[in-house]
Design goal:
InterPro entries: AAA+_ATPase, ABC_transporter-like_ATP-bd, ABC_transporter-like_CS, ABC_transporter_ATP-binding, P-loop_NTPase. By secondary structure, this protein is an alpha/beta fold. It is built from ten helices and 14 strands. The longest helix has 16 residues. Bound molecules: adenosine-5'-triphosphate.
Amino acid sequence: MSHYIVEVENLNKAYKSGHQALKDVNLQIKQGEILALLGPNGAGKTTLISIICGLVNPGSGSVRVAGFDVIKDYRQSRQRIGLVPQELVVSMFETVWNSVVFSRGMFGKARNDAYLQSVLQSLSLWEKRDSKVMELSGGMKRRLLIAKALAHEPEVLFLDEPTAGVDVELRRDMWRLVEQLRQQGVTIILTTHYIEEAEEIADRIGIISRGEVLLVEEKQQLMTRLGQKQLMLQLQQPLPQVPDSLAAYQLDLSEDGLMLTYTYDGGSDHNHVTEMLGAIERARLELKDVHTKQRTLEQIFVSLLEEAL
Ligand SMILES: Nc1ncnc2c1ncn2[C@@H]1O[C@H](COP(=O)(O)OP(=O)(O)OP(=O)(O)O)[C@@H](O)[C@H]1O
């Protein structure tokens, strides 16, 4: 068996409206990783997740979860998946406890109250177990969606925009839980508009635009490959202009003459930082401070999308 928990091959999807939501998507998700899917509104992220979860029919191509085809072996594949949807889909009159018991039962899993208790506790919902869903705050309802998705102990968890509109505290709790789940070996796929979030927690980043997967890459590798770096040199004395001896480094001098900025390719093994600093010394420029800046994932993302247009 392959070590990929989710395998998407040559997937195409056109909605009845004629809109081609996915174009020849290929994606292999590794067991135990955190994959962040980024893409602008309408890129096809939710469609992709819905097909993997068996909620939307693929047009053509194939999708397997833990080796089970999402159509032919629907029950087998679906059982392994937990889905936290964007929108609330819970009965308002049910209690918190009953709704997680129900979610677990739906997948034919034997009752395990101790497990469900631990899920509710990890989401700070245990005290609310006897409350009706309608009595919960918005943030608590969000937590309940996650609890329901985890009720049957899935191997793969999909989080579709889990932190849209939630407060800082809930967001932090959520990422703590994601980290715990990862340690338990759960594979996590999340879509988010908060790119800093992906930058922080994902192992790999996938970028989707107009139904196509533009790239899937290890986050670290992506950041080094495309993340330009800047070295900023703060000077003791203002400079009227960049000395000729430093021309080769194309330094940028600030208006006030107190800051020199050197931009270089973070992914290249052959940058000229040391040389440049040597030249600075020979030019007898006195430095007050030095700091570096790296291009953020957000900046990389935006420029990749622009290139793709
Ligand atoms: N049931 C449907 N019928 C017709 N078109 C649809 C349907 N669902 C989605 N679409 C279209 O397919 C495209 C992809 O939508 P999808 O929801 O997958 O995007 P997304 O990347 O999840 O966007 P967002 O970030 O806004 O959630 C959009 O153009 C959308 O209008």
